[in-house]
Amino acid sequence: MNKKMIFLGLKAALSVLILLFLLNRIRLEEVAGALASAALTPLIAAVLLLALNLYLQFAKWRLLVLSETAGASAKEIFFSLLAGITLGLATPGRMGEYGRPFFLKRAHWARLLGLTVIDKLYTFSVILFTGSLGLCCAAAKPLWAVIIPITALFLLVLVLRPDALGGLLKKYRASPRLAEFVSALSGFSRANARKLSFLALLYVLTFMTQFYLLVRAFFPINPVQGMCASSATLLTKTLLPLAIGDLGIREGAAVFFFGRFQVPAAAAFDASLLLFIINVLAPGLAGLITLLRSRASAIRALG
Predict the structure, then answer these.
(1) What are phi and psi of 219, to 5 degrees?
(2) What is the DSSP letter of 92?
């Protein structure tokens, strides 16, 4: 436990250091000035898209849960989603979200943990593909011309033949936990795979649109460039889960990639921080309140 706390403390310190470094380079008055001059229409639109963002996360998770536990209610599934977001707040790369299954009653948590991995795998595949396109646009590196077809092929396999991927992984299941994941993937139907892929694509596009709108609130960037920079930033912070809540990593990547399209660093920084507040902090705090109320109710029932 002490080692975990030290590790968590180091991650938190890294987030603070990166943010302080960025603020030192950008200057606090520039950040405050950008916030003061923000356009309200794209800002409000980005906030409103949180409802769609949460619904798509819920729809993905409900699809997976009901494929394993038919008796789970929509309320219970949504509660487990919020609880996962809350746990993800305090962990690098939001790893705490893998705790969702523990908040579902009458569920085989090991198999549901495998389904949580499937959820993340499909979303990551979409992020990898869209992010590769974004990096090709924002960074203009020839390497991405090779990576894009490979990621597209991997995503196609996940969509059309999830059972084949599960069969391929069977020989590598060295532990019971990995065996549960492989079992969950092998039993995942192609129809559900297509549905999950579509929902994952909509979720990633919604996230990218929110990011673009938030930057647009501070600087007039065109949609194509905004979506390219958003996808590249999303991929970078996904591949580098080094800080608590991805704080610092996301902001640094945003400053770099949006800067390729002449977006001021303060605008990219503010937009990235607001994206965290809207999509992660607000739902996480809502989940925390729900958890505390649930715990209080349980205590009263026992008393």
Answers:
(1) -155, 135
(2) B
Does the residue 87 lie in any domain? yes
pLDDT tens digits for 140-176?
666 666 666 777 776 666 666 666 655 555 555 555 5
Q: Could you tell me if residue 34 is inside a domain?
A: no
User: What are the residues whose beta carbons fall under 8 Å from the beta carbon of 86, sequence distance 6 or more?
Assistant: 96, 284, 285, 287, 288, 291
Q: Which two tokens stand for residue 257?
A: 């990639």
Copy the structure tokens of residue 48. 């409103």
Tally of domains within the chain: 1
pLDDT digits (tens, 9 = 90+) for 10-36: 555 555 555 555 555 566 565 566 666
> pTM of the predicted model, to two decimals?
0.82
Side chain identity, residue 300: R
Contacts for 211 with CB less than 8 Å, ≥ 6 apart: 226, 230, 233, 234, 254, 271, 272, 275
> Terminus-to-terminus CA distance in the chain, angstroms?
31
Instruction: Write the DSSP assignment of 258-291 as a string of letters.
Output: HHTTT--HHHHHHHHHHHHIIIIIHHHHHHHHHH
